[in-house]
Design goal:
The protein has 11 helices and 17 strands. By secondary structure, the protein is an alpha/beta fold. InterPro entries: NAD(P)-bd_dom_sf, ODC_Mu_crystall, ODC_N.
């Protein structure tokens, strides 16, 4: 670089949160507290749901999985997430889901945050589940069954403990090693953790049932006879066309709540139902425009596929935590020539 090479101005610099720095932030705040903080931002944004641009995620499907973009804006800030879902990755030594995200100012298009979102998505997914259960689960619920003990399992358990006050989580996975991993990771959490030998055993005594499996197919994790009156089902594993976890008859007995119906009808459990089957968007329950749980015998189902506004909330929360310069990097991301018309001159002046 010669003496004439322009140095980055403050306008060129964008805060970047790496995986290492995200881990610092999560451990400084605490995973459960961070989930609760994101849940509070989620609730605020769900209350102003109508202010947001709402675009179903933009997927690129392949035989191996899916790569998606998830954009939204509240008119002042624009956000998007890049995320993949590749169920066979784990067997090949890769993560099933990875992600990164961006926040930008609408007024000038300049990014104000670039961050890893693999860890942040796990936190926001758990926060969304807990927020929905806060409005839909039976009052006084103490026990949750977690069917599917992969990467999301511990986050879900801590979310329901922190936000709803559950004290017992019953775990089941087809792979006993996944359950053993979750038991180890939740030791010292204050939860009573019970490893179970079957899904039927796991749901025994549970008022909340969370399903979170990774197979990219129409599976039957829960059969109709397994689900009794009064439970809340948190269905988070069905999240793309051709991937479901619940028997259709369970859906027909449940009051179904979704994030954004046009997306969920394509990707969620309700893809198994008629296109006009009635569902309620969660924001309407949170704002009092629709009923959530009505009585003790009602079965509620949160058919959660993940929506861009939730990522926006998590990104907004994260940005507001960046008070310590040691927890992010100022990344020279934007070309910012002294004369906006002279980008080529900037290139020339950088010649060795």
């Amino acid at each position: 670089m010669n003496a004439l090479t322009p140095q980055p101005s403050h306008l060129a610099m964008v805060p970047f949160v790496s995986v290492a720095n995200m881990l610092k932030i999560v451990n400084r705040i605490g995973p459960a507290q961070m989930i609760a903080g994101i849940a509070a931002y989620l609730e605020d944004d769900f209350r102003r749901w109508e202010q947001f641009d709402k675009t179903p995620r933009i997927p690129a499907h392949s035989r191996d999985g899916v790569i998606e973009l998830m954009p939204t804006s509240d008119g002042e800030i624009y956000g998007f997430k890049y995320v993949n879902g590749h169920p066979a990755n784990m067997a090949r030594g890769y993560q099933t889901v990875t992600a990164f995200g961006v926040l930008s100012r609408v007024e000038n298009g300049y990014p104000v945050l670039l961050t890893e979102m693999t860890v942040l998505t796990a936190l926001r997914t758990a926060a969304t589940s807990a927020l929905a259960a806060k409005h839909l689960a039976p009052q006084g619920a103490t026990t949750m069954a977690m069917i599917g003990n992969g990467a999301q399992c511990e986050f879900q358990a801590l979310a329901f403990q922190k936000v709803l006050g559950i004290d017992t989580v019953r775990l089941y996975d087809l792979d006993p090693a996944a359950t053993a991993k979750a038991v180890r990771n939740l030791a010292g959490s204050g939860l009573t953790v019970v490893a179970c030998a079957s899904a039927e055993e796991a749901i025994t005594g549970a008022q909340i049932i969370t399903t979170c499996t990774a197979d990219k197919q129409n599976a039957t994790v829960l059969t109709d006879n397994m689900v009794g009156a009064g439970v809340h089902i948190n269905g988070i594993g069905g999240d793309c066309p051709g991937k479901t976890e619940l028997h259709r008859d369970i859906l027909l007995r449940s009051d179904i709540f979704v994030e954004y119906a046009p997306q969920t009808r394509i990707e969620g459990e309700i893809q198994a139902l008629d296109p006009d089957h009635p569902v309620t968007e969660l924001w309407k329950v949170i704002t009092g425009q629709a009923e959530g749980r009505r009585d003790a015998r009602q079965i509620t189902l949160f058919d959660s596929v993940g929506f861009a506004i939730e990522d926006f909330s998590a990104l907004r929360y994260l940005r507001n935590q960046l008070s310590d310069p040691g927890e992010y990097i100022e990344l020279d991301l934007l070309a910012d020539p002294d004369d906006p018309r002279d980008l080529f001159g900037m290139v020339q002046r950088a010649r060795p």
